[in-house]
Amino acid sequence: MRGGMNNTNIEEMHNAHGAKPGTRCGDCCNFVVRRQRGKKYSKCRAYGYSSGKASDWRAGNEGCGMHNRPFDPATMRPLMGQTRLDGQMEF
Ligand code: SF4
Fold this sequence. Notes:
- The chain has one domain (1-81).
- The strands form two sheets. The chain has a two-stranded antiparallel sheet.
- The protein is built from one helix and four strands.
- It is mainly beta and 91 residues long.
- The termini are far apart.
- It is globular, with a radius of gyration of 12 Å.
- Mean pLDDT is 85; it is low at 1-7 and 84-91.
- It binds iron/sulfur cluster.
- Iron/sulfur cluster is lined by residues 10, 13, 25, 28, 30-31, 44, 46-47, 61, 63-64, 66-67.
């Protein structure tokens, strides 16, 4: 199964951080590509990881307000798993 299930994770990021027109997730410092058993999995550090497709990321997404702002796990929490209100971070 491709696509479909993970259409909304970038929308969650746009809702939480705003969209940043003219940027792409693939150009962001928080975009990571992992290779496992010959497959590539793209993820967003600021959104968070799971082992499943819910956290798979698309390089072609329009970037969010966190674009090229390094995600610091010591001071920030990934959005995934937070309530919608908790996701409203101020910068
Ligand atoms: S932090 Fe970067 S990779 Fe993650 S959604 Fe925002 S722009 Fe995309």
